[in-house]
Design a protein that fits this description.
Blueprint lengths: L1 H9 L5 E7 L8 H7 L2 H15 L4 H12 L5 H12 L7 E3 L13 E7 L8 E5 L15 E5 L1 H10 L13 E3 L7 H13 L4 E3 L7 H10 L4 E4 L2 H6 L1 E6 L4 E6 L3 H4 L1
Parallel strand pairs: 1-2, 6-7, 6-8
Antiparallel strand pairs: 1-3, 3-4, 4-5, 8-9, 9-10
Amino acid sequence: IALTIDIYTHLGFKDFVVKVNDRSLFKGIDYPVIVAIDKLAKIGTEGVIEEIHTKGYSLIEAKNMLDRVLNAQPNDTLNSIFSYLRAAGFAQDRSVFDPSLARSFSYSTGPIWEVVIAHFEQGSVLGGERFDKLIGRFQKEDIPGTGFALGFPRTYEAMEQFGLFPESLHLAPRVMVSIFSPSYLSSSVRVASLLRKSSIATEIYSDATHDLSKQLKYAVKRDIEYVIIIGEEEEKSHTVTIKELATRTQHSVRQDKLIEFF
């Protein structure tokens, strides 16, 4: 849970909360009912009661089970989790007890949690749970575990909605490594990797069959500053040719000095 808070904090989200519950608080409640309660935020109280009713329970039974869940209080396990999070320096309002949180996976056996971002309407962006019996379904011994799954598409959408992507991600690469011919593809890939490892935004041209003039036109259209060319002469001399598109100048640079050029 602490890790999930750190993830969304480092991504730049300011207004999010981790909702926490414990599946042991649902003890005695049948699994189909848990599945229905898990939909509370989407279909509301009356919708949950009606769905439970369609599973063979009377309306009174359905209402009583839902009331029992919603009136539950944190148990010792949850209180110890919240105490840990406070001791670790997380704000008190960053994690909250939510008795309606059900996580409708049949293998959940203990604490469960979800990350919800305020004003993001697509739902929770991460969910996790303890699963003490899951591994035992596939081998002879039970091995307790805890894990979570981050919803990448939703997290991406939320970051776009709140403008959390750095501006640098929207800029064109500074450098494009051309492919002089298919026989020099591996050299181009090697140089592109070298630049990327040095945090220089680099693109490698995608089609080794296109001639150099077409590749240069593509770089101009993309507003790329530099194009690197590695042909026969460059390969022999362990150099690269760097074309500076704005000034239409070019430079011959040793490959072991390439990073220094930029």
